[in-house]
């Protein structure tokens, strides 16, 4: 069969039900194979949208997301989603067309060295040089993308090789001698960790997106509740531990709760699980958690001691390591009363520094209230995607995620324009779930064309737009640190979002009254098909609390 037909067979063998992409000259053979290949194709309006949709699909399910693009600009438009997937450890496979092999190196039409360009931001890349390699390459790409620390894999296929006839026999056996992720964790190190936890007087369990990726939320909860361990999560880890829980401190970092950040600052032991001590969490690294010893559990050995030296490093898969750690800890038969003073200190912070804001005295909608209204309207039962900015932080603060894979956002790269296409991907993956994209008026304009995809594909995503007329987070920084010298942040010209939604064939609704917001949101959620709800909020509200850049957690403001 043709190599591209073999690609379709390999994708089906890997359980792929839907792919996202745009055709072009170099990947025309792939699209010919898709015509009767038995796999749903979602035609996006921009390759970046296709890439982010593949990410949303993967984040909502844990399965590998797939995006297709042609050579040249089609491939280069995938660079941002690839980098985004790399920083957030998203299992994705990107299949790009390439010019014919006789044109490689000639600056042929739409030629681009996409494997070279993406080398720093892929987990692995494969440039096909022989059509007989293609089936093996596809299976290897999926294996690498979803095992160990998940990440993006690029497969670049020259057009002439994709059309070649090959002898195809189904074979998904993988033999990669140089790629053997460590999953089990060292037993001796796990025992040392259990003893350290038993001896700690001010412990904090700090977990991240790695727990979600590992499918280890239940194991994390069991470990945390094996004693009265205080728990905090990163932005990427929300939902890995149920937010409505007595041991939950809130999430930590630049816009996390004071309680979580103060607890980290005073802890004597920090148990990091699937988290990487990034700068949004640590603040000023030299002053981060000055009294603490560190246990660091991670599937990626390169992350351990990268930013913060680990006293007890454990390389392994959280789903496999955490039950062993829990058993070792319980065998020590510890006295939980040793944590009484610590919890008294924590409860004091929670009472003095709850998440709060000054609500409007009239009908004006505060952005924080918009998220509270969303939580009420959905009953907390929805997949929430977000773009990047103030609305992302407020969503993380005021929507209480009780389960994993219900919060989908761009963390490490902070990609504006991520929200709508990722919601599209999540909705395709989970057609029976309510999917809401919380967007900002700056971010939504970057990929608003994917509304056309939602309408054409009958994907009923609900976009709840937090419209304040500014690039809000940048404006906040200019207010606080640049003497209110607002430069390039006033969105004077934005579309009439109701008319834009209707122009695409979606439903547009506008909300500007606090008293009716919850009912309006419920109406939007009940409306069939894609909906854009344009919510006008306070223009110059700031996101607090906040650790100013380069300062320590104890220096939080707001």
Features:
six-stranded parallel sheet; Rossmann fold; 558 residues; alpha/beta; 23 helices; 18 strands; globular
What features would you describe in this structure?
The structure is a single chain. The chain is α/β, with parallel strands linked by helices and 558 residues long. It folds into three domains: 161 residues, 3-Layer(aba) Sandwich (Rossmann fold), CATH 3.40.50; 166 residues, 3-Layer(aba) Sandwich (Rossmann fold), CATH 3.40.50; 170 residues, Rossmann fold (3-Layer(aba) Sandwich), CATH 3.40.50. It has 23 helices and 18 strands. The strands form three sheets. A six-stranded parallel β-sheet has the order 2-1-3-4-6-5, sandwiched between helices. Strands 9-8-7-10-11-12 form a six-stranded parallel β-sheet, with helices on both faces. Helix 2 links the parallel strand 1 and strand 2. It is globular and about 70 Å long. The N and C termini lie far apart (64 Å).
Shape: globular
The CATH architecture classification of the largest domain is: 3-Layer(aba) Sandwich
Radius of gyration: 24 Å
N-C termini distance: 64 Å
Mean pLDDT comes to 96
CATH class of the largest domain: Alpha Beta
- Any idea how many domains? 3
Detail the poorly predicted runs: none
Largest beta-sheet characterization: 6 strands, parallel
């Amino acid at each position: 069969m043709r190599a591209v037909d073999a690609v379709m067979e390999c994708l089906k063998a890997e359980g792929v039900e839907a792919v996202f992409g745009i055709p072009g000259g170099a990947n025309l053979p792939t699209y010919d194979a898709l015509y009767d290949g038995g796999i749903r194709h979602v035609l996006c309006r921009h390759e970046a949208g296709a890439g982010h949709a593949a990410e949303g699909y993967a984040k909502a399910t844990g399965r590998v997301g797939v995006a297709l693009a042609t050579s040249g600009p089609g491939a280069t438009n995938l660079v941002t989603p690839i980098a985004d997937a790399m920083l957030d450890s998203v299992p994705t496979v990107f299949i790009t067309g390439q010019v014919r092999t006789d044109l490689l190196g000639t600056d042929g039409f739409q030629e681009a060295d996409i494997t070279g360009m993406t080398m720093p931001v892929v987990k692995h890349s494969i440039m096909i040089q022989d059509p007989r390699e293609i089936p093996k390459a596809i299976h290897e790409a999926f294996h690498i993308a979803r095992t160990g620390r998940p990440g993006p894999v690029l497969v670049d296929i020259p057009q002439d090789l994709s059309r070649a006839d090959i002898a195809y026999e189904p074979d998904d056996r993988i033999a990669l001698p140089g790629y053997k992720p460590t999953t089990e964790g060292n037993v001796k190190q796990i025992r040392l960790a259990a003893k350290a936890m038993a001896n700690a007087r001010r412990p904090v369990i700090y977990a991240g997106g790695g727990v979600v990726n590992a499918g280890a939320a239940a194991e994390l909860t069991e470990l945390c509740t094996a004693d009265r361990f205080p728990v905090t999560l990163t932005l990427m880890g929300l939902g890995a531990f149920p937010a409505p829980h007595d041991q939950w401190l809130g999430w930590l970092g630049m816009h996390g709760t004071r309680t979580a950040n103060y607890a980290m600052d005073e802890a004597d032991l920090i148990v990091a699980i699937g988290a990487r001590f990034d700068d949004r969490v640590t603040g000023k690294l030299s002053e981060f958690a000055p009294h603490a010893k560190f246990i660091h559990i991670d599937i990626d050995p390169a992350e351990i001691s990268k930013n913060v030296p680990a006293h007890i490093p454990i390389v392994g898969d959280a789903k496999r390591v955490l039950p062993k750690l829990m058993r070792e800890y319980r065998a020590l038969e510890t006295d939980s009363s040793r944590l009484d003073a610590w919890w008294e200190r924590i409860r004091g912070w929670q009472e003095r520094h709850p998440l709060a804001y000054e609500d409007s005295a009239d009908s004006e909608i505060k952005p924080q209230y918009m998220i509270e209204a969303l939580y009420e309207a959905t009953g907390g039962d929805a997949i929430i995607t977000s773009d990047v900015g103030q609305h992302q932080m407020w969503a993380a603060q005021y929507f209480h995620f009780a389960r994993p894979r219900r919060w989908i956002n761009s963390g490490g790269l902070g990609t504006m324009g991520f929200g709508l296409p990722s919601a599209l991907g999540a909705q395709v993956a989970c057609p029976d779930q309510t999917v809401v994209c919380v967007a900002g008026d700056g971010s939504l304009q970057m990929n608003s064309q994917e509304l056309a995809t939602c309408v054409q594909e009958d994907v009923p995503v609900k976009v709840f737009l937090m419209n304040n007329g500014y690039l809000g987070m940048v404006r906040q920084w200019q207010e606080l640190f640049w003497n209110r010298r607002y430069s390039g942040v006033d969105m004077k010209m934005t579309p009439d979002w109701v008319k834009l939604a209707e122009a695409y064939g979606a439903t547009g609704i506008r909300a500007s009254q606090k008293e009716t917001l919850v009912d309006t949101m419920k109406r939007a959620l009940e409306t069939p098909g894609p909906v854009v709800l344009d919510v006008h909020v306070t223009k110059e509200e700031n996101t607090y609390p906040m650790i100013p850049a380069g300062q320590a957690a104890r220096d939080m403001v707001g």
